[in-house]
Amino acid sequence: MNLLLLLAALSLVKSARPAPVALARASDPTPVTLAALRSEPARYLGEEVRFALQFRALVEDWEPYLSRFDSARWLALEGWADETFTWDQPVFDAPAGHLFVRRGGGFEPLVRRAHTYQRFEVRARVREVFLGAPWLEVLELTPLEGEVGEGTIVSVTRARDLVAQGEFDLALEQFERARAAPLPPHALAALLEEMRFTRAARDLNPTKDENGLDEKKDKKDKEKKEDGDEGEQGVSKEASSPVVVPVNVRPRQRKRKTRLSVGISPRRRSLESGSRRAGLPA
Fold it and tell me: How far is Cα 18 from Cα 20, in angstroms, rounded to an integer?
C-alpha cells in the first residue's frame, strides 16, 4: 500500500514539472525594432527584447534620477535604430539613449572598442520606464556585418543637394560612391530606390545648356550634322579628283582627202576656173 502511494506521489510531481521546451520558449527575447520599443515602452516593461542598433558613442556621466542605473556601476551608450537611416538629418540628430552595460561586465570591453556606426544585435531587459522612455539593461551584444558609415552619409547628402539643383548625372555619381560601401541590405535597397527616382527625374527634366537647349538633343544633332558633312566631303573629293589620261594613247584624227591635179600648172587652173565662171568652153 505504501509503495502504491509513493508511486502515485512521484507521478504527480513529474507531471507538475514544466517541460524544458516550454521554459526555453518562455525565455526567448521578444524581437522588436528600437523605434517600436521607444514608441510603446510600457508594453515591454519587464520583458527581454532583441533589436538591432547602430552604435554612436559611450556616455560616461548622466542623471540617473531615481533609477538603479547610477554612473558608478553602469556605463551608458546611445545609438540609432537600425531600421532608420542616418543620412536623414532628423534621425542623425536624435540618437536613442538609456542603454546601460554593467561596469566590469563581460561586454564592457566590446562596448569600449566599438566605433561609431558599428551595428550590433542587442539583447536587453526593459527595467524601467521613466519620462516616457525605456531604460534598458543590456544583457548581450553581437556585432553585425555592414554599416552606414561617414563616407556613405556624406555622399548621399551631396547627391540629394545635386538632385535639388537639377544636376542628375553628378548626383548619380555620388550615389554610386555611397553604394560602394558594405551596406546592410535594407540600406542598400533604400539607396537603390533613390537612384531609381533620380534617373526618372533626369529623364523628365533633360539637362539644359546655357542657351536653354537640350544638351542631349543638341549633341545628337551635331553628330548627325558631322556625319552628313563627312559624306558630302567624300562626294566632293571624288568629283574633284583629276582624270588621268594615259600618255601613250593619242586621239584618232580623221584623215583629210586632198585632190591633186597632176600635170596642170597653177596658171592653167586659174584660166580654166575663170572660163567656167564666164560660160566659155575651156
Answer: 6
Number of domains comprising the chain = 2
pTM: 0.65
Domain assignment present for 113: yes
Inside any domain, residue 114 = yes
Distance CA 114, CA 56 (A): 9
**123 and 155 fall within a common domain:** no
Which CATH number belongs to the domain containing residue 102 in this structure? 2.40.50
78 plus 175 within the same structural domain = no
Give the Å distances, CA to CA, from 252 to 168, 196, 245, 249, 255: 75, 79, 14, 9, 9
* pLDDT of the chain, 282 residues: tens digit per residue: 454 444 555 454 444 444 443 333 456 899 999 999 999 999 999 999 999 999 999 998 889 988 899 999 999 999 999 999 999 999 999 999 999 999 999 999 999 999 999 999 999 999 999 989 999 999 999 999 999 999 999 999 999 999 999 999 999 999 999 999 999 999 999 999 999 999 999 999 876 655 555 555 656 666 666 666 655 555 555 555 554 545 454 555 555 544 544 444 555 555 455 545 545 454
Q: What whole-number distance in Å separates Cα of residue 146 and Cα of residue 52?
A: 12
Residue of 124, 156, 103, 166 whose CA lies nearest to 30: 124
